[in-house]
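Fig. S4 source data, part A: sequence.
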Amino acid sequence: MALSPHLQKLVEEARRKHAEKQAAAASPQKSNTSAGLSRVQAPLHLKPTVQTSHAGSVLTASSTFQSITGVPLNEKQLQAVELAMRGQSFNLCGAAGTGKTTATREVISQLVRLPHVGQLENSTKHLSRGESSVVIISFTNKAVNNIKKFLPPDLKRHCLTYHKLLEYKPAKSFDEMELAALGLSGIDPKTGDSKKTGMFLPTYNKIYKLPHISTVIVEESSMVGTDLHQKLLDALPNPERTQFIFLGDLNQLPPIFGPSILGFSLLERSTVELTHVYRQALESPIITLAHQIREGRGFIDRFQKSGRLTEEGYTDDRGEHGKVVIRPWKKKLESYAATKTMLKAFLIPLVSSPSYDFENSVILCPFNKSFGTVDLNLGIADALGKQRGAEVWEVVARYQKSYWAVDDRVLVDRREAIITKIAPTPGYDGPITELPSTEMDRWGRIPGKQQAHPTATEEEIKRLQNEKAEDILSSLVVGGDGEETKNLASHTITVQFLDDGASLELSSAGAINAMQFSYVLTIHKSQGSEWKKVYLLLHYSHNTMISRELLYTAITRARQELTIICEPDRGTGPKHVVNTLTRGASNPEIKGVSLQEKAAYFQAKKRSMV
């Protein structure tokens, strides 16, 4: 859709003024802050939150602006649209219920119509020449899939993870000259061994460039580390010409690896902070609890006007606006006993019920180990497999054994999928596996038997029995003669992804060992997604690691119903132990509540990095 001559003139005038302002700001010393972290050693400051008087309303003035989505926008949402239409890089921040998604939809809809957003000049594996030069990226598939839902078909293909855009591939695909040019070496100087095995590098980098991209929108940018973002900057031919729009909520979990690019971007770019929480959002007990956590207040009983969570629990049911149920542990149980109790008394009955909706429900737990996702997932997979009479296969992948069945729900590359087929891998020459069995559990045990039947003939068994102990040990550890053979798993597992129906065969040891059950997810893996119902499991063993951001992220995954199992308040006076929610709310990873306070944290962080 072409712009009217009047609006076209306004766009060009606004862009000219913005370019003059940037040029003046860069003099006498040129800065590259529009592309990434500033490399100019200058006094640090937080750019003020954009005000209407600063940005003006040239392109979003009521007399000329036409909303494409048809949704009314508030003043700050219009500021974000104004900056996007001017081609300016900026941050769009907002907590749950402030309308960030609404503003983003309008921003993208307007961008694809504007002259500063051109067409891609070349194709890549995921981008096609001639298409709009707008790309929406994030750290996970889940994050980009959320924004993909409301985009036109031609832009859906432009919703990618950083790794897909940069086309990461095994390091063994690079020759030594390429690695050297990238400042890497394929040889470990200490051992002389190849470092290529299991290592992945971006196809597009300092040497091989992506086509020019006019606008990069980073969804859930609080999840993205500065190191990963720098790899994108290295791969862009002219990053200073690319418009960057960072979307995010600094109240959520920071990246696992390195500090958040959003935090540092607050120091570099104009920021629009959405602060108005819409009435319909505040009517939700889920959003209310999320903001209590975000502000550091913790649990508040709205009926008793108290912050004490008793052993009787708490329910706040507001009908169509949502429901929160908190079920405290009746007594302290160590991790092993708590896991068994949780599975038997709550999780297995929950997921075994015909009414449980796997597509719209999720169970979250902070960590993998101890009282964590690993054992909880095994227990659920075992119970559901027995319920449907599933045949369990033992799969050997290098040094690990795992147990899978058709129709298991799994997570592959952070995408949810279902196993559709399991079959022996041709060419595998490693340890002999057990025969598939409906009696085998997910720990490889068969009731009443010490060992399941092996998949070997009598001759093979006799041969194995005559081998020397060291030969057997060697075959168990490596198996086969070549590197490719060693990397093969005993079985090939075919999965079908739930988001697009595509199938994928997993036959390498790395791929099999990276696959996980998806019945219970860590909060980190849930980031960027939401479900109708969320069940959050907390245990006292998590206490030292529970943070404000962790709780806030988990709570805001729920759209309609949230059930929390956690420690209540115990004792009184000097012996009082506060409940898990209030304890976590008082422990922020990024100090401060307001955006200015959080920016000060990143300002200090940046100084320490200089």
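Fig. S4 source data, part B ends here. The mean pLDDT is 83.
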